[in-house]
Design goal:
Elements lengths: L4 E12 L2 E12 L2 E6 L6 H7 L4 H4 L3 E9 L2 E2 L5 H7 E4 L2 H5 L5 H9 L8 H9 L9 H6 L8 H14 L4 E5 L7 H14 L4 E6 L2 H4 L5 E6 L2 E7 H7 L3
The structure holds adenosine-5'-triphosphate.
């Protein structure tokens, strides 16, 4: 098997209530690669992204899948879910809202089994790169950020990336979540993602190609559940000028 091939999708179709919403998808994702899943609203980006962590069946009734999604050669449906979702870190915009139901201490305890004030030097440096170290710089700041309602959306997205990284995943999937960053955060997060892609794969789904075309190598253009184009960004822009 090609060791660089991390995810392989073979003739994947997804039906909900007998409606074919993803149509015969074939796709490979390799190590060290940033792949963009690009397409308009309802193109099927989330269905495709979630199929890589076997999540659609858990979320929706009346779903039927044909074809296969392989992670390192193994069908994702036969991989233990907890392991699958720590090695493929999937995040999407509802995470940003759902985190409001917990406090910072609770999230730290659940995810890392430590208190926010007990982070290591290494973790602090990571938070610095993600632009959120100021929150962890002293007790009074930690106190004022204990409630996530006091965080900006950008800070919460950075924090979600921090938590995913702690589990050392081999693949990151950002399902539309990075579209919610402002321009200032965008540049820093993109630099950060470019740094961490070594030995990993990054999959970014977006409706806004121009935000990520400078860091991605490969693009899949989806429309109405079908792959319309798959290949290099340059090739895409030649065929489908923005
Ligand atoms: N649970 C569901 N029941 C019925 N149809 C669904 C369900 N989930 C998704 N769909 C349909 O599947 C299609 C693809 O949806 P999906 O959420 O994957 O699109 P998307 O490209 O991620 O869109 P967006 O950019 O708006 O997030 C849409 O037509 C959507 O209406």
């Amino acid at each position: 098997m090609d060791k660089n091939k991390i995810i392989e999708i073979k003739d994947l179709s997804v039906y909900i209530n007998n409606l074919k919403l993803l149509k015969n998808i074939n796709l490979e994702i390799s190590k060290n690669e940033i792949l963009l899943i690009y397409g308009p609203r309802n193109a099927g980006k989330s269905l495709l992204a979630r199929s890589m962590v076997a999540l659609n069946e858990e979320l929706f009734k009346g779903i039927q899948t044909t074809g296969q999604v392989l992670f390192l050669g193994e069908d994702v449906n036969s991989i233990e879910k907890r392991y699958l979702r720590s090695t493929i870190a999937y995040s999407e915009p509802t995470f940003v809202d759902n985190i409001n139901f917990l406090t910072l201490s609770e999230v730290f305890n659940l995810a890392l089994r430590i208190k926010p004030s007990d982070i290591s030097q290494e973790q602090y440096m990571l938070l610095e790169k993600l632009n959120i170290a100021h929150i962890f710089s002293n007790h009074s700041s930690l106190k004022s950020y204990e409630n996530f309602e006091n965080w900006t959306i950008g800070d919460k997205i950075s924090f979600i990336i921090f938590l995913s990284l702690a589990r050392n995943p081999q693949v990151f999937i950002f399902d539309s979540i990075l579209d919610h960053l402002d321009d200032f955060m965008h540049k820093d997060i993109k630099d950060f993602l470019f740094d961490i892609k070594e030995d990993r794969s990054l999959i970014i789904s977006t409706r806004n190609l121009s935000l990520f075309s400078d860091i991605a190598e490969k693009i899949v253009f989806l429309d109405k559940g079908e792959i319309i184009y798959k290949g290099s960004i340059e090739g895409f822009l030649l065929n489908f000028p923005l």
